[in-house]
Amino acid sequence: MRINGIVVKDGKHWLVELPLLDAMTQGTTRKNAYAMAVDLVETLVDRTGFKASIHPGKHGEFELSCSDSGALLGLVLKRQREASGLSLAEVAKRLGVKSRNAYARYEQGQSVPTVDKLNELLRVVSGGRDLVLKQSAA
Prior knowledge:
This protein is of the alpha+beta class. The protein has helices spanning 30-45, 69-83, 88-95, 100-107, 115-125, and strands at residues 2-10, 13-18, 23-27, 52-56, 61-66. The chain is elongated and about 50 Å long.
């Protein structure tokens, strides 16, 4: 699993944005900015053995991959939920489940959803925003 990011030069710094994670960081060089993005994601996931990698692209785009797709997907769900201002209980209610733990297992990377379930989860936690999943060209 990879998520898209954008890197742009802003004055003396390079800014990195990971839209699906609603996260930004910066560095003094492009290479340093990429390293900061890796550190940011690894810190947010906070799981032993989790490693992230950057795959530079064209026109300021890049992709971030990782050693544990379930953990990265869980982080995406959590950050989207937080950006929408929703609690675990509110998400569970919108999903029609009684226990918030059922949803929390996805955020914790303990359960990996099917494509249909992922679509439902993203719809609920994104607060009505459209999220675009993009396939890269090889």
